[in-house]
Amino acid sequence: MISLPFMLSLLSGAVTVFAFAPFGWWQIQIAALALLFILVQRAKSAKAAFRVGWAFATAAIAAGTHWLYISLHDYGGMPSWLASLAVFLLAASLGLLYGLALALAKRITIILQWPMTLLLLMPCCWLLADWTRGWIFTGFPWLATGYAHTNSPLGGYAPLIGVFGIGLLASVVAGCVALIIMLRRPHWVAVGLLVSVPLGGHLLKDLQWGTALGQPISVRLLQGNVAQEMKFEPEQIAASLALYQDMVMAQRADLIATPETAIPLLSSQLPPDYLDQLSAFAKQNDSRLLLGAPWSTAPGIYLNSVIGIGNGVAYRYDKHHLVPFGEFIPIGFRWFVDMMRMPLGDFGRGDLHQPAFHVKDQWVLPNICYEDLFGEEIAAQLFAAADRHAPVPSILLNVSNIAWFGDSIALPQHLQISQMRSLETARPMLRATNTGATAVIDHRGQIIAQLAPFTQGALEAKVQGTQGLTPYVRIGNGLPIGVALGVVAILWLRSRGRSVYD
């Protein structure tokens, strides 16, 4: 029989989807986590804590990424039951991390009998589960806790401790709420943190973490709105090539960018004068072009790339963080990929550290689709450039095609992820996408221009690049992860030598 705590965990986990874009009700996340921590605190054993933690996380991930079904079923042709099962198994597998983390917190709590676990141990264990999800099996940190707070007071901490640090603080705030509810009276530490943590983030938002570099550049971000089911059809390829050539050459700008794989052919397969005409346009108008296109460096080796045209120097950025099943096939899962009618396979990987593209006074660093989920990698690229005394990127550019997920909440969720990258690095982020969300985000994480999704057009804006390294760029996730590991290790060591039967 399903217990009431288990059902409450499922429900509270599922509603956390409303804390993220496009809804933005981050307060729901705080309330849901507070309820979860209360359920864990009241659990009679570590096993019971595991069950409620797993149920909460599984429901949260499944509700937040249900759009994966569209990719698998609508475009991949997978039977509906199998597509649904795949989404559930992904969420359930990742949910294990949170169940184990809270089971550990519960075991230590039972042994130590320490009431402050709600404010310290559970938030730290929750953070470690969030962080582990960001790298295990190459990582899937979509909807990590901190992403809900791009527009909350906690967003002010992003330049200091990044998305995972914000997730830790959100969990601490939730723990404060839980402690006050359980004690049925104010607790001076909990009340103090409830006031000081959001207030600190609000005050930090007024600080300038980056300064202007050079003069602004004019940009045009192209959104072709090519239907995903038609993109790789032979009759559509010629139309796509003509579409993007016309869109690029319609008007000059300092930088013109297309979405990921907007040019769906290798350079050797393009019409003989295709790139030459674009190069001539760029030279005549003093424009720089960044074109999403596949690239081959040797027979059988293909890269998901961005090609730069217009500054007299050959430029190419190759995607380095590939999507499992979409761009590389994990060992033993060829059968799963073969069940989908998608042009999927194994791509080559680019280097983590690649140079930026020079556009007037600015240096533009591309990332491709899924790569902007990994803030620590973008931060490492910025820091490495500064450390090598190379030009440090002043503008970030994400080129994406998430038409695979239809008209779903995946689009605004991805936009929110890009906002977090801007907050962490104090850099503007440009987004050129096939169906949305094509947007310009300033160095403070604010959307200053955006095209309507599922429309064809060009987004034009003036963009000011920035310079300077935020604390997060310098140390990455080191501070929040170090604190969490330290707290858990110290309390675990204190619990050693004592026993408990649960």
Explain how this protein is built.
The protein is of the alpha/beta class and 502 residues long. The chain has 2 domains: 4-208 and 477-495, no CATH class; 211-449 and 456-469, 4-Layer Sandwich (Nitrilase/N-carbamoyl-D-aminoacid amidohydrolase), CATH 3.60.110.10. The chain is built from 15 helices and 14 strands. The strands form 3 sheets. It has a 6-stranded mixed beta sheet. Strand 5 (301-309) and strand 6 (315-318) form a beta hairpin. Helix 7 packs antiparallel against helix 8, helix 7 (158-183) crosses helix 13 (410-425) and helix 7 (158-183) packs parallel to helix 15. The longest helix is centred in the N-terminal third of the chain and has 33 residues, at 80-112. The protein is globular and about 75 Å long.
